[in-house]
Amino acid sequence: MIKQIIKNKMQLVTYIKLTTCLIFITTLLNAQAVETLYQQNKTPTYIQVIDFYKALDKQYTTAKLLEAGPTDVGLPLHVFVISADAVFNAATLKKQNKTIVLINNGIHAGEPCGIDASMVFAKALLQTSLKQTSPNTVICIIPVYNIDGTLTRGCCSRANQNGPDEYGFRGNYQNLDLNRDFIKADSENAKSFTKIFHQWQPHIFIDTHISNGADYAHNMTLIATQKDKLHPLLSNFMQTIWLPQWYAAMKTNGEPMCPYVDTKDEIPDSGLVGFFEPPRFASGYAALFNTWSFVSESHMLKPYHKQVDATITLLKTMLPLVELHGRQLRFIKHQADSLVKTQDTFPLQYQWQNVTTDSVLFNGYAAVKKISSVSNLPFTTYNQQQPYTKYIPYYNDYKPTLFVTKPKYYLMPQCFKKAVQLLQLNNIKMLPLPCDTAIAVTAYYIDDYKTTERPYEGHYLHSKVKLHTDTQTLIFFKGDYLIPTNQNNNYLVQVLEPQAADAFFAWNFFDASLQQKEGFSDYIFEQTAAQMLADNPALADSLKQAVERNKWQTNHYQQLNYLYKQSHLFEKTYMRYPVYRIE
Questions:
Q1: For 212-222, what is each residue's pLDDT tens digit?
Q2: What are the structural domain ranges in the chain?
Q3: What is the third-level CATH fold of 31-344?
Q4: CA angle in degrees (0–180, nearest 5) for 475-477-478
Q5: For the whole model, what pTM was predicted?
Q6: Which residues lie across from 103 on neighbouring strands?
Q7: What is the rounded CA–CA span in Å between residue 403 and residue 406?
Q8: What residues contact 12, with CB distance under 8 A and at least 6 apart?
Q9: What angle do CA 498, 501, 505 make, to 5 degrees?
Q10: What single-letter DSSP state applies at residue 40?
């Protein structure tokens, strides 16, 4: 039996080698055409993409393909770097005051237009004189981020998408949506991306996608970092200078662009709502570090070659703007990074404002009602024979509704290995305690929270957290971590404050604290409970109110349990959030 397994394994290895060889030969034969496959409604395979960048690496001294860490499928994540000075060390380029642009492709492997567009963009750029076109800009391209999903090619998982003939699958090898993984980092892909991000510290981050939703004339829409949660210095510069010029350049180049089409009501005529990207998303994560983040969304119903061409135009129009404004952007980002270290108060939650302060010129199609031949009920569709161009409302204002003042330090027990790893991975400075120490801290207690009924990206996500604080002196042990808050507090506050939308708490990192470990037997606790009531008339009144409020008149256990929780016997660790504040 074992011999047969070994024999079959050897046959499998031989088959893989032969298949890889055939693919490699095919790639060589089609090397000149790989980046233009999109014109025939096709997108290259993962191997073809990487071989294409390897060929550029060999051909141009100003390009380098780097391996940057593992992925869930066992293959390395790559970064393709284009540098006019042929310098490929991130630290050196930072010292040279280069503007860094990071382009991420294929996070949703069924949306490959950015994969194709980046190949065309990279090759065209390298064929120019970089000293003329981009002397102060370094382009970093992740050729394929969701390698796992890209290897799972098929024709039909994107029901609303017009081409290409074959494409990857949205989920990765764990069936995770990698564009929901940037805080919890359940995938090796996300951990490798985090290393890339902090190594290169981009000033601009672009994540390429294909949209879903309404039908309209635009080939390209854009999600920019939501202005109200970006640092004011960066937000003002982006809103008043960068975006107007980028939109104008797109229009001049034949690709009029509008903000991402997320409609207020059913159809675009009702107005567009600015997309609010929490840090679980790539763009929201990047914004925590004062990086301008943009998500390109080509239109899923356009012919695939138009989707790719629109993305190529987006990248090409971006580059001269980076050269024009790079020096100012670098200066402003440096200022914002410094100010965040000393900032005291941070917003944790926002609320969309149902008021319009802006409008956008929109190229749409008339929305019409038809009767379904399936359900015999009305549904909305769009008539491309009735185009229109008009201004529609743009609802892009969000107001902070919950703030927190940072402590002087956070204190995290060393036992929470994943949280510790992610903090370290994100360049958070952590000081291990040199010995066992009693420390006065502010502790959060979770009073209430809501949890999803079904798993969301492998977790039961918590939200609507209510809490109170208590000052306690607790024993912490050698190796527990003291975390100073004179560093990137945007990230630190968003992951460690339990009321933040994408806090580690929301993603179940600390769920063990939500479970009571000890209890009581009623016949044993009965005498203690009676004595408590006799000694404390106010407690007796409180119990009476609780009984009436919760209808416990006939529930002996719940009445005792109420008193048990007020007693010195009840465990203080129950519902105590295990990351502490030193004020």
A1: 889 999 999 99
A2: 31-344, 361-399, 407-512
A3: Aminopeptidase (3.40.630)
A4: 150
A5: 0.92
A6: 141, 206
A7: 10
A8: none
A9: 35
A10: G
